[in-house]
Prior knowledge:
The structure is a homodimer. Chain A has helices spanning 10-21, 43-48, 67-77, 88-102, 106-109, 111-119, 125-147, 164-178, 187-196, 200-207; strands at residues 2-5, 27-30, 56-59, 62-64. By secondary structure, chain A is of the alpha+beta class. In chain A, strands 2-1-3-4 form a four-stranded mixed sheet. Chain A is globular and about 45 Å long. At the A-B interface, helix 3, helix 4 and helix 7 of A face helix 3, helix 4 and helix 7 of B.
Amino acid sequence: MKLYTHSSSNAAYHVRITLNYKQIPYDPEYLLLDEATGEHRNPEYLDLNPLGMVPTLIDGRRVYRQSLAILEYLEEVYPHPPILPGSSRDRERIRSLAQIIVTHTDPLTNARVNAFLRNDLGIDSKGRKKWNRTWIRKGLSALEHQIAGNPATSTYCHGDLPTLADICLVPVVACATEKGEDVERYPTITRIYQSCMMLSAFRTGMEDG
Amino acid sequence: MKLYTHSSSNAAYHVRITLNYKQIPYDPEYLLLDEATGEHRNPEYLDLNPLGMVPTLIDGRRVYRQSLAILEYLEEVYPHPPILPGSSRDRERIRSLAQIIVTHTDPLTNARVNAFLRNDLGIDSKGRKKWNRTWIRKGLSALEHQIAGNPATSTYCHGDLPTLADICLVPVVACATEKGEDVERYPTITRIYQSCMMLSAFRTGMEDG
């Protein structure tokens, strides 16, 4: 498999962690980011991925584009170790925690949105900082609220093995720290982040960015 | 089941269509939107849904919060008629089309983001229009690019029965039209939207907003 990836993309980091965790070998292909748009504007790449975003995963002649769809696919085709274990209710909880981040946090703070705020709406760095901090705090607060004190939360967001929820948690925490957010305000998230970073799949996923 | 819902939420509309399509009875509970934040700030509701967003689905003592997680759960527990049919590759395509909208379009143009642009960053209505139009056009262009001319596309985004991809397509098209976007620029999307709107599950889902 070949993975188009970029260091600033949390979504690409989710796929790298999952490929590592499931021990699926892949060749990373690092893309350049267009400063004006925060997207990958190479015409050949746009034909593969019309949004100009990463990740894109190539498996033979098949092209897979959206991170959560890729993770669900990898889980179906390479079920061991699972990232969506348990009953339908367990999976609903795991997916719901993941989506706080993937739907309501990451897409608001990524490179293309920051480029648009700066270049098209003229928002200065102070305004962009306020913007990023707002959505990161709302996302992490909601996630903390849902996992803290919940009996299903253990070493990881859902039980004693990492799941899709942890795979989505780690990149946003790294990103929040990089943007100057004090993640110690979210003690359960911080504890789970540290547990994840003891696993090579998560560490290597970060280093390979 | 009880569904907390609001007319301005595409995510709540996805769940209404799915409940209708799978013929699962539910009681809608309509929430008020706080103008300053574009969120639902009732403290009791925030305890159910800490992001202050809809939908929230209540089934007995269980609380389900994120639209895609809810749709995946309903598909597992009420598999007929399916919204994620076929092979793992089919499901990957359907989920990937859905996520262009659910991850990269809807969360950028919803009420809370528009409230923040207006009230916290001082963006005027012209700037907000440019913002909304940009993300809607990028999303619909990418979706059109991926479905137009693809042999898997038929009456609907994937085959001859509606799927998760169509459930995510219809609300964003209705929303784009409302925001003044000319959706005729996306002929495959427009054709599929019209096919969906011939089905009562989609029409009733809109009327019940």
